[in-house]
Every structure is written in C-alpha cells, then in structure tokens.
Amino acid sequence: MMRRIAILVVTAYAIAGVAAADLVRPAADVELLLARSGGDATTEVQTGSAFTQHPETLEGQALGQFARGNRIFSTPWIEAPASVTHFDGLGPFYTRRSCSGCHVHDGRGRPPAGPDDSAATIVVKLGRPSPSGGRLPDARYGGVLSERAVGGLAAEGRVVVEWDEIEHAYPDGARVALRRPRIRVADLGYGPLAADTRLSLRIPPAVFGAGLLEAVPDSLLAALADSADADGDGVSGRVAWLPRGTSAHRRAGRFGWKAAQRSVADQVATALNEDMGITTPSRPRTEITAVERAARSRPSGGHPELKGAALEALVNYCRWLAVPVRRGLEDAAVRRGAHCFLDSGCASCHIPTLTTGAADQPAIGRQVIHPYTDILLHDMGPELADGMPEAVASDAEWRTPPLWGLGLAETVNGRRFLLHDGRARTLEEAILWHGGEGSRSREAFHALRVTERRDLVQFLESL
Ligand code: HEC
Ligand code: HEC
Known about the structure:
Elements: H1 2-16, E1 42-43, H2 60-74, E2 93-94, H3 99-102, E3 123-129, E4 135-136, E5 144-145, E6 148-149, E7 158-169, E8 175-186, E9 198-202, H4 210-214, H5 218-224, E10 240-243, E11 250-253, H6 264-276, H7 308-320, E12 323-324, H8 332-343, E13 354-355, E14 368-369, E15 377-379, E16 397-399, H9 409-413, H10 427-432, H11 439-446, H12 450-461
Helix pairs in contact: 2-7, 8-12
This protein binds heme C (HEC) (2 copies).
C-alpha cells in the first residue's frame, strides 16, 4: 500500500506539472526500492552490454539514428587526409581515437594503475585559478593535456600517476586501505608547464541516462538547491548556472564531474574537440598554442570535421542510452541497506527521485526517474579538491554523480573505479572520501556496525 501511494504521488507531480518546489521533500524508504530507474527508458539487460541499450519504444527513424550514432561512437578516427570521407581529421593533438576508447561499452574509465601504465582511459585538465574567477589554461599546453599526436608531431606529454596509501580505521577495529593519486607529466614536448599550473585527473563516467538528466527542468534543480543551508543539515548544494551564449539567459550545468556542460550536445562537442581534436560547428577550432605552431600546418578533415546529421546522430545516441533495471530488490540486505542509506543522509545529495520535463522522445519526456543525484555542486572538502576551479565550480566543488547502474559497472568494465579521479576501488572507499558537505554522511557511515556497512554497500550494488 505504502509503495503504491509513493508512486502515485510522484507520478501525479510529473503529469500535473506541479510547482517544482513541491517535489522537495524527504525521500520515503519505499522509493528506494523501485526497479525502473530510467522510467520508460529502462532496459532489462543486465549483462556486459547493459549500458549500450536503447529504450524499447525507440522506433523508425530514431532507431536508425541510434544505430548510426553507435557506429560513430565506436569508430576510431584517423589522420587527414584519408580515402574515407567521414572519419578523418583526428588531432593534431588527441587523447583517444574514439569515444568508446574511453567510454568502453558506454561505461566508466580507469586511472593508471601506476607510473608505467599507458593504457588508462583518462583526461587530465590543466589550469590555475583565474583572478576573475574560473580557470586559466596553461600558456604552453592549454586546458587539457593530450598524450598523443598525429604522425611525426611531438605529443604534449605523458601522464604519470603514483598512488599514496593511507589507512582508515573503524571504531570496531576494522581497517581499509585508501589511496590518493600523485600526478605529474613526463616527456613534455614543448617546454615546461607553468609553475602554478595544476593537474586534475578525471575518469570517464558512464554515458547512459544522459538524455534523462538533460530533461530534468532547471526549475526543479533551483528548487532543490539550498546554497545557504537554510535547513541546517550541513548540505548546501548549488546550481551550476552557466550563461547561455552571449545573452543573459542562464542554464544549469549538469554534465562532467564539475557540471561544466549544460547539454549533451555541448558535452559531445567538447569531447570531440578536446579529447580527439575534431571540430564541429560550435567548436570550429582545436586548441594549438603558440609554442605548438608546427601543428597548424597539418591538413584538416573538413571545416568543420563533424557536422549535420552525423553529429546529431552521435548526440542522440548518447541522449537515448537506456538505464539498467534494478536487481535484488527482494533481498533482505538490500532492503536494510536502503534504510542505512537514508539514515546516513546520503539521500540529501544522491536524491532518489527526479522527474523530467518535455523531451523529443516519449521514453525520455515526463518520466519519473531514480538517478540518485540532485545534479548540484557540493563542496566535498580539501581531500577531494583538485586545486582548480572550472566553469562555476570551485576546486573543492563536484557535481553529485548519479549512482544508477553502479552495481553493474564491474560487469560492464571488468573493474570499477569511483570518484572523479578513480582513486576509490570499492564503494566503501568512495564513501570514506566524502568530506566537506559530505562529512556528516561519512561520519554516519563510519559509525555503522560492520553488518550495516555491508547492507548499505549491498543496496548500492542493487542500483
Ligand atoms: C580521453 C577520454 C575520453 C574520450 C575520448 C571521450 N570522453 Fe566523454 N568523458 C570523459 C571524461 C573524463 C568525462 C568527464 C569530463 C569532466 O569531468 O569534465 C566525460 C564525460 C562525458 C559525458 C558526460 C557524462 C556525465 O554524466 O557527466 C558524455 C555524454 C560523454 N563524455 C560523451 C562522449 C562522446 C560522445 C565522446 C566521443 C565524441 C567522448 N565522450 C569521448 C572522457 C572521454
Ligand atoms: C553533500 C552531498 C553528498 C552526500 C551527503 C553524499 N554524497 Fe556521495 N558523492 C557526492 C559527490 C559530489 C560525489 C563526487 C565526488 C568526487 O568525485 O570527487 C559523490 C560520490 C559518491 C560515490 C562515487 C560515485 C561515482 O560515480 O564515482 C558514491 C558511491 C557515493 N557518493 C555514495 C554515497 C553514499 C553511500 C552516501 C551516504 C553515506 C553519500 N554518497 C553521501 C555528494 C554527496
């Protein structure tokens, strides 16, 4: 009975378009045990391809577009000029040749295991705080370090990561090893980095569900924000308001670990440009600094290199990827874990239920979804800070990541790395790094009995 009521209430909000502020209420425990995390854009597939599915209702032209986008997502680009017409124009500087080179099976990436590991799938952002707010890129290397370059050209450098281990001890005597990265760049191709340039390691998040997160109305996020912590719970999320174009209109940033991108289209154009060196109508030039001018004479793959229907297909592919269904909801440990999740205050940021507004696909628009995020920025304390602001976020602020699908991340990607730099190897480690606004939650978790800690992790595995 309880469960029916909760579903009805939430659905009524979604359909009647009730003021967003009315949605801001404590989560009910029944809500934490709903199976269809993505609403109609939920897939039943639970295998290694759980993150690569489209909603069942996708049909006709849209299905064709999804298939085309899928191909573009996984095709390796090559250096121009080439005999192929569509996929040349890589670089001159790049990190990977394809989207799926980082988002393997549309899933998460991994940081380097140690100093000699070159197979990692990461992005390293470069910069320092600007006096006028935001981030200043490095004068020689720009805002992103590219570890690769097209034939004959020196790459920018090689990222070297070493891990420092520290230990966390629980009141019951149990111990767990945590690790924190030390990052530097070796083999710099164009001279030294500026002395005050900092390095921010980012692992690729999973891609699915992006269209649903995009369709959550800005007004709902504004209603969820509590930037002055008016309710005194120690949590004060804020919307990453980004200006839109040159006008005064603003839109909530929501993609990337610091919510620097407002839409899937912007995120994809940025990835193409910064990670692969491919130009699009909104990002018509790739970054080549003054010391890198030798790269300017390289042939281009077109002006721009990706546009029109092909670009649209790639963006829609990302937008329409479905969310995997929950598992193990009848399991007693999962049910107990849901209570621990609520009692530890996790749901203040990892909000179980959001609703989407209008969207071009019926499976995406007007859905009740369970992403476990508020899509807001939170100060997570000095341990997670990367020394570098980005867009509106400060160095210590991060967007609450959605937790949906986390339980399948190992099935899809073999191993599972968590937090923006992939330092956490388990769900437990990820929780223990929460600081700043997340401190109270971490303390609550720390104080749980070992069986309760296991139940909470079991609950996260069901997402
Ligand atoms: C070199 C690795 C790399 C490549 C190549 C790459 N990405 Fe990403 N992707 C990332 C990282 C890292 C992030 C997080 C970025 C941040 O924190 O700003 C990300 C974020 C995203 C997101 C947002 C997910 C979210 O929830 O915030 C989408 C969507 C995405 N990428 C799509 C793509 C597409 C499409 C391509 C190919 C055009 C691509 N990516 C290529 C590493 C990569
Ligand atoms: C103040 C808001 C806040 C609270 C409260 C909070 N989290 Fe988080 N959580 C975040 C943010 C922000 C991150 C990303 C931090 C980063 O990447 O550096 C995160 C990351 C995570 C991750 C890793 C996700 C990923 O994709 O890598 C897990 C798992 C997680 N939180 C679980 C929990 C649990 C369980 C609790 C309760 C014990 C909790 N969180 C409480 C904001 C919060």
